[in-house]
Design goal:
Blueprint (H helix, E strand, L loop, with lengths): L29 E2 L5 E2 L5 H39 L10 E7 L2 E5 L9 E5 L2 E5 L4 E2 L4 E7 L9 E5 L16 E7 L2 E8 L5 E6 L13 H5 L5 E4 L22 H13 L4 E7 L1 H13 L4 E7 L5 H12 L3 H15 L3 H4 L12 E6 L7 H10 L4 E6 L7 H4 L1 H13 L2
Helix pairs in contact: 1-6, 3-4, 5-6
């Protein structure tokens, strides 16, 4: 061992300073055995100073890698939120038999005893409330709406409970109209009435105008001109230039065009009805256009807070909440959508018109908790119909009489 080099175990022992020297002897740098360089040994304090740097240089790449992976997942999740899809549900229900105003069905959820539609290629019927399990399948009473199915036909359940052509099942004078919107002409189903207050229906994301046809006839029979609108990215409608849903941020401009159309055709004011994402569209209309032409709002299972809704769906998938934060940030960067501005729960103080709020406790798509909080914050303006067990936008299907009576009472009181 070279002279002056501390022995193992002596690293903390400074010892006396030799006579005639003001500093301890520095260990020489020379040639170690085997031809390598011999470096000065490090003291314990020096080692303590170095280990945070070593740890930092070890962790930084790992943190960056994990951050990139998390951002990638957030980006992927934002694709699910924004991307427009138009896939159709399969015909996965078998019509086993048809007998005296009833059908025998086999398939998933055919025993769910609420009103629903039965849709098959070339036909449509409405299943009435109630279900009876038999040896052959589930027996359901139905009404032709307007068709009667044949045994052996493959069909699917449809909670809209109404076909795409409202005129085929009602005699209320439903007709097709178009109105000019920022991206081009949009279709609407219109029912005339003698009142000067119009009711405008806005369906949810990925749905169609038929989603609103359960309630529309009851409203039109009160004398209100009623219009169910389409908006950008609907089937047959102009596509948004970026090909994404605007989640209410951009579609509200199409609602503005519909309100302009109503006013140009005699409306003094309007009532806006929003289903699911249609609630976000209506909310953003109120934020950007104000309430000058709005007498009231009806919400059914509305997206009042995208943050709450995305967190709710992420939790259902077992995803950590921080990923939804990343997804929301990705949506902001990619599409310019500000979820904080769209949040009607956080901004409940902005509400200035009466609202009938309908939401079911069985909703597994949009959290009923958002509606609970919204109603709690504004009891002065919100009438809350909280339906036990009702699924997403299916309050009418499970509680038809209560639902329609509540709407009629609300409209009459405006």
């Amino acid at each position: 061992m070279p002279a002056g080099t501390p022995r193992p175990g002596d690293l903390n022992d400074t010892g006396p300073i030799p006579t005639g020297s003001s500093e301890p002897d520095e260990p020489p740098i020379g040639t170690a055995a085997g031809g390598g360089l011999a470096y000065p040994a490090q003291s314990e304090p020096e080692r303590r100073r170095r280990w945070p740097k070593v740890l930092a240089w070890t962790l930084i790449p790992l943190v960056l890698l994990l951050g990139a992976a998390a951002a990638g997942v957030g980006w992927h999740y934002s694709n699910e939120i924004l991307t427009v899809t138009d896939g159709e549900e399969p015909y996965d229900v078998e019509i086993v038999d048809v007998r005296h105003g009833a059908v025998v069905l086999a398939g998933d959820e055919v025993d769910h005893p609420q009103i629903t539609g039965l849709d098959w290629a070339g036909g449509y019927a409405r299943l009435l409330a109630g279900a009876e399990t038999t040896a052959d399948g589930v027996l359901r009473e139905f009404e032709p709406f307007p068709d009667t199915p044949e045994p052996g036909t493959n069909a699917r359940l449809d909670f809209y409970a109404a076909p795409e052509e409202l005129a085929s099942v009602t005699d209320i004078g439903a007709e097709h109209v178009t109105f000019d919107a920022p991206l081009g002409a949009l279709d609407a189903t219109y029912v005339p009435g003698e009142e000067d207050r119009w009711v405008i229906f806005v369906h949810g994301r990925g749905a169609s105008r038929a989603e609103t046809f359960r309630l529309l006839p009851a409203v039109a029979e009160l004398g209100y001109p009623s219009m169910a609108i389409s908006y950008r990215n609907d089937t047959g409608a102009p596509e948004d230039p970026n090909g994404w849903w605007g989640l209410g941020w951009t579609e509200s401009a199409d609602l503005t065009a519909a309100v302009d159309y109503a006013v140009a055709n005699g409306a003094e004011d309007v009532v806006l009805v929003g289903y699911s994402m249609g609630g976000a569209i209506v909310g953003n209309y109120l934020r950007t256009e104000g309430d000058d032409r709005v007498a009231g709002v009806i919400y059914d299972s509305p997206v009042l807070s995208w943050t709450d809704t995305i967190d709710f769906e992420a939790a259902d998938r077992g995803l950590p909440s921080f990923l939804t934060t990343l997804a929301s940030a990705a949506v902001r960067v990619r599409a310019g959508i500000d979820f904080s501005e769209l949040d009607q729960v956080d901004h409940a103080d902005r509400l200035s018109v009466p609202v009938l709020l309908v939401h079911g406790t069985g909703d597994e798509t949009v959290p009923v908790a958002s509606s609970d909080e919204f109603a709690e914050q504004r009891p002065d303006l919100v009438t809350y119909l909280r339906l036990d067990g009702a699924e997403h936008v299916q309050g009418w299907n499970s509680h038809r009489r209560l639902y329609e009576d509540s709407v009629v009472t609300f409209l009459s009181g405006l």
